[in-house]
């Protein structure tokens, strides 16, 4: 990740989610850019509902993220500081882009005023939107290696 892109992501995270920003500062320095990118992406997708007045523009924004993560908007992704940082993190730490795309898919629920049908649906939603970020943060802190025992803890942490 470039120096200016990293600084922009960290400052973006600082402005939007102070607790996650502080947690990134407490992480080992080499992992900070990737952790900041993951958390900033999570915040950015979560706040889409607050930025749009109707579901369709929100779905378009989420589709843009899906396209970037799937490689369909490579040029745009590299030009966007957060997207570039997120893509660099996925490449450096072998993070599954499919899981980030699934996060975008799950965030579509936020755009509508439907109640959560059941507790199991809520747990699934939290697994795809919160637990996945926790699991990826563990993977970053583990140097890119998957740590299977942490998946269960991340799952419970995301639901909590």
What do you see in this structure?
This protein is mainly α and 160 residues long. Helix content is 76%, strand content 0%. The chain has helices spanning 3-16, 18-25, 32-46, 48-51, 55-70, 74-79, 81-93, 97-107, 119-141, 148-159. Helix 1 (3-16) crosses helix 3 (32-46) and helix 2 (18-25) runs antiparallel to helix 3 (32-46). It is globular, with a radius of gyration of 15 Å. The termini are far apart. The model has no long low-confidence stretch (mean pLDDT 92).
Concise account of the structure shown:
It contains 10 helices and no strands. It is mainly alpha-helical.
Question: What's the layout of helices and strands?
Answer:
Elements: H1 3-16, H2 18-25, H3 32-46, H4 48-51, H5 55-70, H6 74-79, H7 81-93, H8 97-107, H9 119-141, H10 148-159
């Amino acid at each position: 990740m470039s120096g200016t892109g990293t600084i922009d992501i960290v400052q973006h995270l600082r402005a939007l989610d102070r607790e996650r920003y502080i947690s990134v500062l407490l992480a080992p320095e080499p992992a900070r850019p990737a952790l900041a990118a993951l958390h900033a992406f999570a915040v950015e997708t979560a706040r889409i509902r607050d930025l749009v007045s109707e579901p369709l523009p929100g779905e378009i924004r989420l589709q843009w993220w899906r396209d970037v993560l799937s490689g369909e908007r490579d040029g745009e992704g590299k030009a966007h500081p957060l997207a570039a940082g997120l893509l660099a993190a996925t490449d450096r730490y072998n993070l599954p882009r499919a899981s980030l795309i699934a996060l975008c898919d799950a965030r579509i629920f936020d755009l509508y005023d439907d109640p959560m049908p059941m507790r199991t649906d809520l747990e699934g939603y939290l697994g795809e939107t919160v637990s996945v970020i926790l699991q990826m943060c563990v993977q970053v802190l583990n140097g890119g290696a998957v740590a299977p025992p942490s998946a269960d803890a991340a799952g419970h942490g995301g639901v909590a």
